[in-house]
Q: What sequence folds into this?
């Protein structure tokens, strides 16, 4: 199994270098076709996202793949790779399998446990399939990487705890309301963090969005992005009572919602709960609002504490996820090595069977006239001897499958028994 991988990621390169090495989705078919057309390259897989480009290739055992892969990258990007060498990482054999399994499991992501990478890996696999760039061991490895990624998500809590402020807001809202279906979100201020939190809330089931900003045009623009409604800033308290969730991030120097105002809002809502996500600095919501029944106020520090606790939880889950990856790497190596043994086993059996048959035929004349039963006994005797002779070598080869020295052992056995490659 001749495997190689070259990559560049957020760990090894700044964004401008990753952009230079990026391979756009629309260019993948041509890139894969070019890669597998290179001398000695039989299979290819390219995963290209904003945070990484990983290119895996498999080829003939006697081929040195690195020069071919390096030339492909230089030709495709029409550049000299020398200035980028220090940002690249190269891996071979077992390390390629481990890397692909870790990537698909989100263990190598900027945010460990993020769910998008598994879908991106699947798209890369499908693109390679459509380009007919997968037809051997790399095909099986890519399939297994997807299975490992799903197993990690199924058997660990790696991706369940929110590790960003915006996701933490969604997590807390769910704890308060049970479900976000049918809930109304009021975005106060049109900053990027407010927009991100609102986007996560809508994708989690919130049904409608109201947006208010001191600059009404900005409110209209953000409301349009969510198919929501813009509210003039001077009409804020006429509409705020409709909101189940308020996300506030303005530049106000004073509280926008005081305790007294919140009391009036809750009274008008017949004390249906209100959840305030105050991510402004200075704060927009009076902390005293949290003293009211049915009001829940979380500021940026509260959310950061949730994120920090969840990040520790993910780190604990990542330990088990790494164990799963190692288990699957060993299983995959053994399965691939066993499959590679098939031609050798067939060749050994055919070689020894031809010797056995020739020797039986050579001694037939000396044995005289044999009955059918006697001839069957000779055949059974010689085949039994053959089976016992082969038992040791076959057992050694099968038990050692996946070990680093396995290939050497197979080559030695082939030479001993006179089986050519």
A:
């Amino acid at each position: 199994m001749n495997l190689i991988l070259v990559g560049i990621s957020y760990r090894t390169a700044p964004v401008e270098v990753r952009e230079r090495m990026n391979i756009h989705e629309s260019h993948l078919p041509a890139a894969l076709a070019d890669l597998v057309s290179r001398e000695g390259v039989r299979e290819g897989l390219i995963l290209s996202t904003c945070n990484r480009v990983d290119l895996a290739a498999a080829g003939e055992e006697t081929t040195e793949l690195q020069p071919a892969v390096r030339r492909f990258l230089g030709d495709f990007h029409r550049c000299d790779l020398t200035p980028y060498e220090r940002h690249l990482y190269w891996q071979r054999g077992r390390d390629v399998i481990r890397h692909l399994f870790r990537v698909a499991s989100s263990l190598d992501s900027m945010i460990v446990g993020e769910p998008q990478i598994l879908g991106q890996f699947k798209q890369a696999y499908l693109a390679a399939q459509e380009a007919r760039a997968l037809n051997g061991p790399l095909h099986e490895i890519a399939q297994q990487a997807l299975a490992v990624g799903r197993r990690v998500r199924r058997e660990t809590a790696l991706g369940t705890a929110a590790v960003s402020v915006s996701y933490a807001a969604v997590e807390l809202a769910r704890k308060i309301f049970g479900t976000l279906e049918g809930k109304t979100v009021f975005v106060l201020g049109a900053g990027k963090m407010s927009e991100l939190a609102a986007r996560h809330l809508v994708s989690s089931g919130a049904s409608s969005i109201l947006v208010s900003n001191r600059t009404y045009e900005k409110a209209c623009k953000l409301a349009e992005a969510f198919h929501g409604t813009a509210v003039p800033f001077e009409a804020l308290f006429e509409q705020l009572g409709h909101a189940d969730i308020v996300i506030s991030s303005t530049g106000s120097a004073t509280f926008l919602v005081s305790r007294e105002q919140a009391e009036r809002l809750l009274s008008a809502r017949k004390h249906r709960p209100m959840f305030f996500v105050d991510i402004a600095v200075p704060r927009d919501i009076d902390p005293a609002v949290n003293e009211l029944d049915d009001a829940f106020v979380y500021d940026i520090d509260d959310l950061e504490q949730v994120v920090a606790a969840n990040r520790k939880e993910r780190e604990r889950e990542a330990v088990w996820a790494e164990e799963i990856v190692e288990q699957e790497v060993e299983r995959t190596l053994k399965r691939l090595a066993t499959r590679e043994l098939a031609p050798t086993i067939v060749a050994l059996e055919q070689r020894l069977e031809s010797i056995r048959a020739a020797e039986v035929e050579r001694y037939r004349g000396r044995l005289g006239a044999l009955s059918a039963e006697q001839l069957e006994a000779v055949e059974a005797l010689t085949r039994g001897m053959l089976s016992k002779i082969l038992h040791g070598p076959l057992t050694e080869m099968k038990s050692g499958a996946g070990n680093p020295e396995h290939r050497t052992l197979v080559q030695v056995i082939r030479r001993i028994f006179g089986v050519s490659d």
